[in-house]
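$ ./design --mode recover --in tokens.txt
reading tokens...
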């Protein structure tokens, strides 16, 4: 997809909102990017796009937070920052939850280990230090759903 420029925190959240509106049950979205790049901000938007009414806060100390969505499946917000071992998603039963319909958004997704059929959003701080760049990757089966919310892959 073309790299997106996100000029402000509001634009990062807006990208999340669009992604959230496109997501479907049984999906994993891995969020990559350095400390403080905007992974939780994007997740806040995703939650809004999924009709979550509670406020999303960083799960860093808890590793996992669960929110009810309007799709009738839970949103699992995972933060692997403090998790050392690969395989956490499987060991904690998160992959099983996803199989049963849950949507998992995973901060520090590169630590998730081997997974199949996931979507990735890579965030980067721009060279100038202002704003962010976002790169969304997903399988071709997502093309239409993402186009409907104005996103290209
Ligand atoms: N496009 C943007 N331009 C400038 N600042 C932004 C942008 N998007 C988010 N931010 C800011 O980046 C900061 C960090 O955001 P956030 O907590 O979402 O990052 P994170 O990647 O989840 O961090 P961590 O790695 O600690 O979990 C916030 O202060 C937020 O306002
Ligand atoms: Mg975070």
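writing sequence...
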């Amino acid at each position: 997809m073309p790299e997106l420029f996100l000029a402000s925190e509001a634009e990062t959240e807006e990208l999340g909102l669009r992604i959230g509106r496109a997501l479907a049950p049984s999906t994993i979205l891995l969020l990559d990017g350095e400390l403080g790049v905007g992974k939780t901000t994007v997740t806040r938007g995703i939650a809004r796009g999924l009709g979550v009414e509670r406020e999303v806060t960083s799960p860093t100390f808890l590793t996992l937070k669960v929110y009810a969505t309007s799709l009738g499946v839970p949103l699992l917000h995972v933060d692997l920052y403090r998790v050392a071992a690969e395989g956490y998603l499987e060991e904690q039963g998160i992959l099983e939850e996803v199989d049963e319909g849950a949507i998992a958004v995973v901060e520090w997704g590169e630590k998730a280990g081997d997974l199949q059929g996931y979507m990735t959003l890579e965030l980067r701080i721009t060279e100038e230090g202002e704003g962010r760049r976002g790169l969304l990757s997903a399988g071709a089966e997502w093309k239409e759903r993402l186009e409907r919310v104005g996103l290209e892959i």
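exit 0
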